[in-house]
Amino acid sequence: MKNKGTKLLLNATYLLLLLSIIRVITGATDLTSVGTASAALLLSVPIVLAGLGGLFSERAGVVNIGLEGMMILGAWAGGFIGSQHGPWLGLVAAVIFGAVGALLHAIATISFGVDHVVSGVAINIMAAGLVRYLSTILYQGGSWPGPSQSPDIKEIPLNGLPVLSGGHFFGWQSPDILTPIAEKHWFFISDLVGIIRGITGNLSYVTLVAMLFVPLAFWVLWKTSFGLRLRSAGEAPVAAESLGVNVYAMKYAGVLISGGLAGLGGGFLAIVAANHYQENQVAGRGYIGLAALLFGNYRPGGILAGAALFGFADALQLRDSQAIHALILLIVAIMAYLVYRDIKKGKMLSGVISFVMGAALLWFYFAVDELPGQLVSMTPYIATLLVMSLASQRLRMPAADGMPYRRGGLR
Amino acid sequence: MKRLSIQKIALALAAPVAAAIVSLVVSSVAVLASHKSPMLAYKTMWEFGTQGGSLMEALNSATPYYIAAIAIAVTFQAGLFNIGVEGQLRLGALFSAYIGAMFTLPPVLHVLAVFIVAMTIGGIWASIAAYLKVKRGVNEVISTIMLNSLAVGMTSFLFAKYFAVITEGSNNMTTKELPTTAWFPDLVPLLTKLGLPEIQGASVNGMLVIAIALGFIFWFVVNRTRFGFELRASGANPIAARVSGVNSKKMTVVALVISGAIAGLSGLPAVLGETHAYNMGFRSGIGFSAIAVALLGRNSAGGMAFSALLFGFLEVSSRALELIDIAPETYVIMQGSILLSSVIAYEVVRRFKLTLQSKELAKAVSA
Amino acid sequence: MSVAVELRHITKRFPGVVANKDVSMKVETGTVHALVGENGAGKSTVMKILYGMQHPDSGEILVNGTTVNLKNPNDAIELGIGMVHQHFMLADNFTVLENIILGAEPKHGVTIDFKAARDKVMEMSKAYGLDIDPDILVEELGVGQRQRVEILKVLFRGANILIFDEPTAVLVPQEVDDLFGALQGLRAKGMAVIFISHKLDEVLRVADEVTVVRAGETVAEVKAKDVTPRQLAELMVGSELPQPTTHGNTRRPEVTLALKDVSIPTATGSRDLISHISFNLHAGEVVGIAGVEGNGQAELIEAIMGLRDYTGSIEFLGSSIDHLTVAHRHDLGIGLIPEDRQRQALMMNSPLWENRILGHQRGKPVMHGAILDKKATIADTKRIMQEFDVRAPGPMTAAAALSGGNQQKFIVGREMSKAPALLLASHPTRGVDVGAQGAIWEVLREARSKGMAIVLISADLEELIGMSDRLLVMLRGAITAELDPQKTTPEQLGSAMTGAA
Predict the structure, then answer these.
(1) Which residues of chain A are at the C interface, by a Cβ-Cβ cutoff of 8 Å?
(2) Domain-by-domain residue ranges, chain C?
(3) What is the CA A129 to chain-centroid distance, rounded?
(4) Is pLDDT at B197 greater than 80 in this prediction?
């Protein structure tokens, strides 16, 4: 265990070092600025929630492609209820709506044995259609400003760590020590401080709660009876049944929890990350959450790491296209490492392909000064593809994931 | 024997009928939620939809759905999920409009050239997902969805920056209009000669013919050739398929690339038959509706044809709803509820059939 | 001594078959009671009913004298009934400890009390002599160890009525001795042990009483010391059991298959999956490969078939096939009956005629050029069904509707139809009823006398010894012994398989 922890710390340090170097070379200060780190944290929350949702569902043996649809339902509910009854009730509604979507998926796959991917895709199509229909009705009825946009929602107050990050408690505004250090642009130290300040200041309480879900998920799944039984439904359902575990109930629980988490993620997008619901707000984050799940090898800690990665890419893309330009260098560096690893293993063809791609990217970096908006907005998706390509090989799926289950044995 | 065939027909119809009933109920609830009468809604839709002009519009609407659904069905049969059809068809449409306008060839050849461009682009885009799956084990559901978003971004980027020309006097951006040698003819003149009554302003997209031909080719290849068998075996039991000699990696790549190529074709009815260019108004969402068509049609040529026609009819006839102040988006509710309920109904019927067969078997054995 | 369990007139029907008809049984505490019958006779079903996994249509169950209604395994567990399954019900990705406590987790408030669990398991492990490491992942355990985990699972829940479903099916003779020792220990502690098996001499070694079921009905309840295996066998089948034997020497001078120094290295660089295998197989000869599961037999078959990469050389009918694809090897005349018919040889939801095509989609009669000849395929499927006695309504029946034995007969018929020069038969009669078993042996015998070379892998030592002309023993990927089946007993073979010889 000690080895894993230190290895993680080492890798994180290398990455930070790399980023610092690139920042100094390219002058793209936004790479490690407070603002970016803060935005990265914000944007990683829906991905973490979607990823954790996927975790509960798949650990119980049900593949949940429908996370995207459940997030859409949650975002819409957040906008609908949140604009009328305040942000906190909006979040509650988001959880409920997401869970209802999950209920449909659960009934189709668990009780009726429909293929999990087919059901998930159907849920996504339905959810998108349903919210558009409902939005149109509300707009026609006059209560919504646009056919795909909800009225504004009141904001949830922000706060930060005392002393270090300028938090305020009971009327006392604490000093903000970290920000000036971050702005000095000292190599490595400022980068590190900038990131820390970014993730500890100006936080929404919801963000904090969402992040707490990560250790909570670990505790539930690995330290409680419920968690052991839920995981057994995904690993060996027939064995679990023979020991008196109610496998159906466990699967339903896993899927419903996943819908609730995904719904919460959607609601977060509408209420905290923005201040109203907008069509296409979710923009594929449900799928990116799935990617984070795979990147994290079905463990909460890994999901957090994956979500942080994607959140970072998302944040950069929104704030500063120059930083994305600089990010290309990071990818070139990763490619170089890939080439080295492939050649060492003797995989010549893969190595050559990686080399060619790396060289092409390097040329692209020098050839293009500024990336056009449309390409920049594609960053999270490219990031997802890249991450999946590198990480998919060593996956350890729950053994009975995706398989239809019937009481009394498989058929 | 007679009893058996009635039973067979009943079984075959059970799922679609059940699905239709459920979706009627759901849609009625949706209409009621907006304080309107469902009966009025259906009556309006039926009256509008069964007019000659509307029926032809429905055919036009169904054509790209059908082609795209065939593309998806090719992968579904092999146990793969090409959700990226939307992206493949967009890129195919854009590139074929742009490149097709760069030269002139005699009519049939020009159209063929455009076809080839569309199919190549779609195939290349799909091959990225194929490569990632085969070489890196990346789940194709996620990769094709990501590629979708990438394709949308790339299309708008390439279109805005390089491929489009701004027509004078208007704000509309479009690629250069295709020379008439690349236009796909309207079928109405031909049909009128065959006795179809004249209807004002109606046209039938000529690519309907291509769609029908594709349907036959698809049916034939999947059910009657060795490749089709190996495709289906890979989907039914990939391990057994491999043991029987199928090269599963090759099969994955071939299925995905063919799927991408056909998907590329599905963007062409609009480009070749209607707008004769690629512009901002290019219809989005064909790819996703096509997934519903494929699922509803259970990946069979006939089933998907029926589903495509159904969706086309619903889409066109629901336009009339605006006239009576009901949101035309009701169509989307119908589509979604048909999809989900049919998918469940098929599964229920399948299990029921299997139980029936076991009973039959026992009777035959003890006889 | 009292009656621990009594079953009275248990009847259970499934769609299309009566699994149990009026079954009655009495088991006393402190005894080992065997339940015997051929595959498909209904033994597993009646025990599943006792364990609460199935519900009887009619009849009574009495535990310790009181009538009970078992709605699910939890009820049975609470009454002290525990079941050690034939196909181990273990989660590979869980540790031994997690597997044992699943469903009965000791709690510390809301969390699981792992320490209490571990202490209890280690204590039981010592008391019953069942050695195990609780923190190891089950997927790393061997067969004998997995069975120990299954037994501990049952004891952890305080069972005093233990049901063992075909426990020796996957064990070598030495492991069987260990198991029987454990059973004697359980009996001495006053537990009631029910032991399901079709291996009659083993049954008579360890059981006190025997109940015989045939075609779903109880036909006899006898004391073990009063019967011979032969009598039991006749009670089981109602007639003489078929024997796996081959007659005479049909070996021809041509070499059909030649392996030279074939190895498959593992990716991690540790021990090879198979290592330096060399042997020649002649036409008309059956070579039996004996070995505990997991010692490379499956990989050897995969190498010959082309499903795995290997080093070394394999020659078929005199020419090298090392660079040929799986499809090509099929077409050259290598037939395969795979180990797991549902996973590796059938499309369960497809009709039989489509399954006929599987493996043969490149030539006649199925293909007409590149086009499927549906008519010819259906006709040929009918032929196979008739020649090989496959009981099903017709070629349109889905494969899933057939019984295991009929599925296997179909697969054998399919492979035989191209008259392969070499047949790779992996556990060809596993899970197959006695009638089908005899039929398949007959098919193999006939093929052998007509010149087919056969590689036979089996866990049934009698089948191996009876059907083979030569025996090769595989251990840890290498061939460690060659034996003459005419001079080898199952015990000797078992010793060689575990390396104890």
Answers:
(1) 219, 223-225, 228-229, 231-232, 235-236, 238-245, 396, 398-399, 408, 411
(2) 3-237, 255-498
(3) 23
(4) no
Q: Which residue of B has its CA nearest to A285?
A: B146
Q: Which of 3.40.50.880, 3.10.490.10, 3.40.50.300, 3.40.220.10 is the CATH number of C3-237?
A: 3.40.50.300
| Confidence category of residue A97, pLDDT binned at 50, 70, 90 | very high
User: Are the beta carbons of A117 and B137 separated by less than 8 Å?
Assistant: no
B330 found inside a domain? no
The 10s digit of each residue's pLDDT in A346-400 is 777 777 777 777 787 787 777 776 677 777 778 788 888 887 887 766 677 888 8
Q: Which residues of chain C have pLDDT under 70?
A: 15-17, 39-40, 238-242, 267-270, 500-501
Report the distance separating Cα C378 and Cα C352, nearest Å: 9
pLDDT at A319: 76
Amino acid identity, residue C336?
A: L
Looking at this predicted complex, what is its ipTM?
0.82
Q: Would you kindly state where each structural domain of chain A is located, as residue ranges?
A: 2-394
Fold matches, C3-237 and C255-498: yes
Does residue B294 lie within any of the structural domains? Answer: no
Nearest beta carbon to residue C53 from set A396, A408, A411: A408
- State how far the Cα of C403 lies from the Cα of C400, in Å rounded to an integer: 8
Q: Which chains touch C (3 or more CB pairs under 8 A)?
A: A, B
The C-alpha atoms of residue C388 and residue C401 are separated, in whole angstroms, by: 17
CA distance B154 to A375: 7
Cis peptide before A380 (omega within 30 of 0): no
Residues linked to residue C12 through DSSP beta bridges, in sequence order: C20
Which of A378, A390, A405, A407 to mutate to test binding with chain B, by most B CBs within 10 Å of its CB?
Answer: A378
Exposed e or buried b per residue across B10-43, where buried means at least 16 C-beta atoms within 10 angstroms of its C-beta: eeeebbbebbbebbbebbbebbeebebebeebbe
**What amino acid is encoded at C271 in this protein?**
R
Burial string for C280-289 (b: 16+ CB within 10 Å, else e) reads ebbbbbbbbb
User: Which of these CATH numbers, 3.40.50.300, 3.30.565.10, 2.40.128.30, 3.40.710.10, describes C255-498?
Assistant: 3.40.50.300
Is C326 in Cβ contact with B245 (below 8 Å)?
Answer: yes
- If you count residue pairs, one on A and one on C, with CB atoms under 8 Å apart, how many are there? 68
Q: Where are the beta strands (DSSP E) in C361-500?
A: 367-368, 371-372, 422-426, 453-457, 470-475, 478-483
With contacts defined as CB-CB under 8 Å, which chain B residues touch A357?
A: none
Q: Over the stretch B223-245, which tens digit does the pLDDT of each residue have? A: 999 999 999 999 989 999 999 98
pLDDT at res. B339: 86
Q: Which chain B residues are closer than 8 Å to A118 by Cβ?
A: 295, 343
Give the CA count within 13 Å in the CB-facing half-sphere of C32: 25
- Tally the domains of chain B: 1
Query: Contact at 8 Å (CB) between B262 and B119?
Result: yes
Tell me the residue range of the domain where B96 lies: 63-184+205-283
Q: Tell me, what DSSP letter sits at residue C87?
A: S
Q: How far apart are CA B117 and CA B119, in angstroms?
A: 6
Contacts of C74 in chain A (CB under 8 A): 244
Calculate the CA dihedral of residues C482, C486, C491, C497 and round it to 10 degrees: 20
Q: Does A239 sit within 8 Å of C91, measured CB to CB?
A: yes
Average pLDDT over residues A132-146: 82
Place of tokens 């350890």: A396
Report the pLDDT value the prediction gives residue C159, as an integer from 0 to 100: 87
Number of other CB atoms surrounding residue A375 within 10 Å = 19
Q: How far apart are CA A11 and CA A38, in angstroms?
A: 22
* B223, B355, B365 member nearest C391 (Cβ): B365
